[in-house]
């Protein structure tokens, strides 16, 4: 079986498509650019713009950190469940024979 065919039978090998990754990065870049431009053209004092830029920076950084932490947690739980499942199968196979 080829690696491409194996990726459809083994859910651990499935990944995001290049088109999806491109869309995600493009959407992120457009959103960040429009936010920065929008703040720049606000009719407010410079210190308010600075505060909004700082808020945008920290909100973006915390969102990226949160998404990474959630992904890591999901992968950890998936690994733990696979180990528990393998142990259960091992115990059941001993009792079946």
UniProtKB/TrEMBL annotation:
<dbReference type="InterPro" id="IPR038972">
    <property type="entry name" value="YiaA-like"/>
</dbReference>
<protein>
    <recommendedName>
        <fullName>YiaAB two helix domain-containing protein</fullName>
    </recommendedName>
</protein>
<dbReference type="InterPro" id="IPR008024">
    <property type="entry name" value="YiaAB"/>
</dbReference>
<dbReference type="GO" id="GO:0006974">
    <property type="term" value="P:DNA damage response"/>
</dbReference>
<dbReference type="GO" id="GO:0005886">
    <property type="term" value="C:plasma membrane"/>
</dbReference>
<feature type="transmembrane region" description="Helical">
    <location>
        <begin position="51"/>
        <end position="70"/>
    </location>
</feature>
<keyword id="KW-0812">Transmembrane</keyword>
<keyword id="KW-0472">Membrane</keyword>
<dbReference type="Pfam" id="PF05360">
    <property type="entry name" value="YiaAB"/>
</dbReference>
<keyword id="KW-1133">Transmembrane helix</keyword>
<feature type="transmembrane region" description="Helical">
    <location>
        <begin position="20"/>
        <end position="42"/>
    </location>
</feature>
<feature type="domain" description="YiaAB two helix">
    <location>
        <begin position="20"/>
        <end position="72"/>
    </location>
</feature>
